Amino acid sequence: MIMLALVAVLTLIATGDPRQLIWIVLLAIAALPAFFFREHPILAPAGRFAEVIVTGLAAGSIAEASDGVAQGFGAEAILPYLAVPLLTAALRRKPTEGAALLGVAAVSIVLGGALADPKTVLAGTGYLAAGGQWLVLGAIVTFAAEAMRQFLQPAEPTPQPYAEATRLLTQLRSVARSLPGATLDPGGISEHLLEELRAVAPGHRAAVLSASGGGRLVVLAQTGAERVDWETTLDADSAIADAWATQQPHVASRSQARTHRGGEVSSLVIPLVAGVRTIGLVILETDAAGAYPSSVVQGVTEVTGPAALRLEAALLFDDVRSLATNEERQRLAREIHDGVAQELVMVGYGIDNAQATLPEGAEETAEELRALRGEVTRVITELRLSLFELRSEVDRNGGLAAAIAEYARTLGTSAGLRVHFTFDESTARLPAATEAELLRIAQEAITNARKHAGAANLWVTCTVDPPYAEIEVSDDGKGFADNRPDGRYGLTIMAERAERIRGRLKITPRHPSGTTVAVVLGTPPRRDSVRDSVSAPEGE
Predict the structure, then answer these.
(1) Cβ–Cβ under 8 Å, residues 299 and 268
(2) Which of 394, 466, 525 has the alpha carbon at shortest distance from 219?
(3) Distance separating alpha carbons of residues 317 and 177, to the nearest angstrom
(4) How far is CA 283 from the centre of its chain?
(5) Vertex 61: Cα angle to 57 and 65 (nearest 5)
(6) Where are the transmembrane segments (predicted)?
């Protein structure tokens, strides 16, 4: 509109003829499609081509009518309008259309001069010079607009991944603490959710399940007079699988447990959906038929909706912490293996060479070198065991008991310990982060027994019935009477790990000698458990 007003004024000044303003009216009409239908794939480009054609034809007519302007330079009054359609095409990143507009503009200018007066307008150098000047400017606008746009755009700040991660984690912590039952522990959030649901829906049994890395569900929390062996697979024919797949509540007239005594039962399975992703399930069961009508289902979903976001935040925080911890453990293992361990091996080789080149009669020096070589060998063995501990992880398919057993066997072999295993592990799994912490606690307890207890036997008991778990490590050594500082530091680390997963660390004397270290998570099951006990041969 500003350009139309400008060329209208210039046309009046150059020609002094109000009749020439008809071209300005035609330009305004030609601009209407591109102005009102800017995103239309046909009308908008057609309008721009119409503007270019009208401008070119008007240039010849106005040049002829400009008697006071020499050699056809009167076309300068209307040609600036070429910038409007050309700049519009350039800003919309349509270089092909811009080039076509330039070609049509050149033809229209020549045609406009020929229609006005071929002898006086088209043959005049002023008209062609004016047309050529604005075609060059139009080409600059068309092909340099993108470069100018990028140059004028403010530079984006260089991303700082760790600074951004710190900001987001700080915000996550603040938001999580401001909510009811605020914590970044998935188990604590799940228990608080079950407490809230008690006031909304009846139930003899309830549980919160979430997905694990192995494609199975893990029990984060549950309530009831007896512990339930819930269905934890998503490929079974159950309301659990249906609710997970459809992200809709499901009511069933059968139990969602693998083993049930029978009788009337009502089950309600509510998916915990955060955004578009299912992160877990809430299961409510009661020993009565038709206990969950639509009004109860609606009340339950009103409680589980906000809890899903809280639980997702806690699970994400657990994932971030586990990834960072595992990465750091692997990095330390690599540095120890490539650095200190290799250097100690070279020191051992140097001692061997010194022993081989000792002159006869240097028995005292030879004895000192043998003692030094033995100490270097001991340190290298300790480093190798530390590397094994750093690299040990709970396999998704093997389970927590298998990881603890592998570690106990390896250390038992190195120390000549007789290791006794007692395992009672459910098919259900604990959350990956919880299993990792329990493995580290068991490793520290086994390591302390090997290093400081002077024991001959080691008893390792692992009971896992999610969300309950108990790991117990006992030895027949001398206990903690020596008050070794490094042993006490190990106890502090174990206590911190147990607190992190909301577990309890218990250290008691073993009769007649030795120590028992146990970590307990949750409350013990009330059903009878059947355990398989294995006593390994000496050194295994």
Answers:
(1) no
(2) 466
(3) 13
(4) 27
(5) 165
(6) 20-37, 72-91, 98-116, 122-145
Taking Cα atoms as reference points, which of 312, 220, 302 lies closest to residue 274?
A: 312
Question: What length does the chain have?
Answer: 540
DSSP conformation class of 114: H
What letter represents residue 306's amino acid? Answer: P
Give the integer Cα–Cα distance in Å for 72 and 220. Answer: 87
Residue type, 447: T
- The torsion defined by the Cα of 270, 274, 276 and 280, in degrees rounded to 10, comes to -40
* pTM strictly above 0.70: no
> Among all chains, which residue has been given the structure tokens 């577990």?
503
Contacts 24+ apart (CB under 8 A), 455-460: 455/417, 455/514, 456/417, 456/418, 457/417, 457/418, 457/419, 457/420, 458/408, 458/412, 458/417, 458/418, 458/419, 458/420, 459/419, 459/420, 459/422, 460/404, 460/405, 460/408, 460/419, 460/420, 460/421, 460/422
The pLDDT assigned to 316 comes to: 80
pLDDT for 273-302, tens place per residue? Answer: 888 888 899 999 998 888 899 899 999 999
Contact 519, 470 (CB under 8 A): yes
Give the DSSP letter of residue 341.
I
What distance in Å separates the CA atoms of residue 311 and residue 159, rounded to the nearest whole number? Answer: 29
Contact 538, 416 (CB under 8 A): yes
